[in-house]
Amino acid sequence: MAGDADHEGSQNAKFISLVRFALFYGSIILLVYIVDIFTRKRHPALRSVAILVLGDVGRSPRMMYHAESFAKIEFDTYLIGYRGSKPIPSLASLPHVNFCYLPDPPSFVANIPFILAAPIKIAYQIITILHTLLLEVPHPPEFILVQNPPSIPTLALVWLVGLLRGSKVIIDWHNLGYSILALKLGKLHPFVRIAKLFEITFGSSAYAHLFVTQAMRDHLVDQWGLVGHKAVLHDRPPAHFHRCSPTEVHELFLRLGPTLNTPSLSPFLPSPSPPYATSFTRSITSSGTMPPPYSPLPSMPGPQSYARVNMPNLRPDRPALLVSSTSWTPDEDFSILLEALKLYEARAREVNQPREKRSSDDTLPRVWMVITGKGPDKEKYMAEVDRLQQSWEWVRCTSLWLEAEDYPILLGSADLGICLHSSSSALDLPMKIVDMFGCGLPVCALDFACLHELVKDGQNGLIFKNAKQLAEQMERLLTSFPNSAALAELRMSLLHKANPMEGPLVDLSNHEEGEDWEWNTWTQNWNRVVKPLVLRDADRN
């Protein structure tokens, strides 16, 4: 008991010390800049931007694409966020990009009750963000671009720093922070109401507002009366997202080979024979046979005879590769996919009976369902998957974590994408579908209010409302795989009028009410929407 009391006393002492430090250090920073703002006029450095994302920089594709676009028009670009996944490779090669990583909270915070940990984390975030924006960024940036959500404390901090440093604030509205909090606490919870008031107070005024959907723009302009320039910037993938060639698929699965050697997956996938064959591709000789197993060149001199090995092709006996990317959070109900996989397994057993027992010649393939991403519910659901697939014959479900450079190659190698995103606000669109479309990958997507801005049912994908519909769509698209006519039709619509230098183009000219919506690359979209905003006053300055 005495030890517990000493430990509790030590934790309280650390908490008090940190609060004192936060108040002292924060007061010094604010005092310096308040004095400075009244003693001389601040002039932000032109063609400079600080981009703030309160999360893992490498898992924030839209903000990384913003940074890349700013750097390409020669803005000094400071990308601020937490370390974690590797950023996209192109950022490292651009001369104008600077990474400013925020430090993680002290380790002891993870061992104290939430009621104490939460204010410590927020206080620590306030200190580190202010320190970075006010001291580490060498000159006041012309623009501060902030991702929302999270709203607390970032919206208030960029508002304050914009006031102190004379920077123009741009808010990139991905979703509504209070609506995500409501998933956990309920819409009527006092914290949700406070969060909404905070978001309205500090998010209503900015130099410019960017929105991922037209629905979000209309809602916030109507309900919150936003002040500043307002523009819809639909998500688009970067130009290097594309449908992969068999050679690219071959190289990917050569790299992934060791990670696929698991007790449940190895017997399910076709046997690989590196370097000539993976579970999805194989190279054959000019005579139509598989090359012999690889061995070092013989050391004995003399003429040798070698058969020419052709470029890899997709294996006809490969399983259908399905991909879903998830953050394993309440706004993505994985149980829908799990139930659909159960129904598909049962249906595949029925359809793939011996020929004499079938009612038709149609067959269903084995399905390998790959789930990418990290999140709080991952362990719970994957434990259930492991239990179920011990008796499954036609389905395997695996969780994979991929580096940024391999993720688009996996999408470009897959046969069908699955999206479970339901949107806490019903006003945002899932970036994962955008990435899939960029890689020429058709999707089955869970229906919600503004999904029609992206997915055209029957044209570039299919929309489902429940697990039964998803299982039926999987069966429809995968029947007679790899020669499925329904799947090929969706894929062709995504590759319609594709420009190989700019990525796939989706023909969505029949958008509702006659509105033309042309699918283009991130760069084309950004240059059309954002570039005029940030260069608006350049000539006069």
UniProtKB/TrEMBL annotation:
It comes from the Eukaryota. This is Glycosyltransferase family 33 protein. It comes from Leucogyrophana mollusca.
